[in-house]
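Revision sheet: structure tokens.
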Amino acid sequence: PGHVELLPPQNVTLLSRDFAMILTWAPGEGSPPGVTYTVRYESQDRLDKWRKVPHCRNTPRSFCNLTCALSNLYVKVRARVRAVWGRSQSPWVKSQFKDYYSDVELAPPVLTLKVRDNSIHVSASFPLPTCVENLTWKYDLNLWEAGSEDKKKYEGYFRKDTVTINTTALRGNYCFSARALYESINLKHSEFSQPVCVLLNHKG
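Predicted:
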């Protein structure tokens, strides 16, 4: 294709969602089919040095997961994106600044329950990008009898911890739900996960 006036991407937004830092955008007005996008980012400690994001060069998608491309999760960054089509390139459009550490939004953990004779073992897994595995994620766990408002709380467990609960005295349908926690400048937490319920000491 020859030289075309390519309008820049719109609604360029850097957002933090489900443990990840993601740049999103919408195609510019009248974008031709087959247009691709290239993303770069700069961090507040090195302004005017726009770093390349290899997996978001000439991408057909309208988002770019920046989490593991960032050189420092504790410094504010912003990203920019432009449209490319043949030899035509749109102007760059920049996002606002954000930093992973204080802006991260958490997704609820996924619970795994192992029922034994007199106990239940509950573990929580998190949909984490690999580069943030070693940050100190924690979770809170709630346990209650189905239909009751009275919740027993188990708080501040580290991500890899398993909570073991003695079930000798529990009879009936019991439910579990958890939320992810992260201590940055203030304590952040996710929504509680959808309840997972199990019948305990059910005879018959």
